[in-house]
Amino acid sequence: MTRQFFLEYENGPRAIADLHDHLAPVTCETLWNALAKPQTMDAMHAIYAGPEVMVGLPEEAQNFDPEAVPAENQQVIPGTGDLMWYYQRPYQMGGLPFEFWEIGVFYAPGARTLGPLGWTPVSIFATISEGLKEFAEASYQIRLTGIKKLTIGRVE
């Protein structure tokens, strides 16, 4: 049976994403364990990637070594509904001193993982299979109105 995560905006739509255990087994297992307890995070709109909302995995869920998660199912042109994992080490991106444990959701066509230093391959670990239309509409609104709370957890 396919494992799934739910993604739900506060006072907003809920989407279901199917994990790609066959394409990104370590990433899927790692995030499945990290999200054993649903996590609510601030979702912000990406600047460079186009139609993407992104969240930082909270410290409570950072229960693994991010550098031990291999590059799997990497893409630079993700599909609509794809979820990605990316770890940014301190000072990796243009000298920024902080790390970022990122889960991103690409909600419409035209996304690309282009950042301030150029193309940045990311691991695609899941794809939304239910509720994409409503989720995409709410995600687009973040671009206009700002940060929204997003909860991600297991469907069990």
Automatic annotation (TrEMBL):
<dbReference type="Pfam" id="PF12903">
    <property type="entry name" value="DUF3830"/>
</dbReference>
<protein>
    <submittedName>
        <fullName>DUF3830 family protein</fullName>
    </submittedName>
</protein>
<dbReference type="InterPro" id="IPR024532">
    <property type="entry name" value="DUF3830"/>
</dbReference>
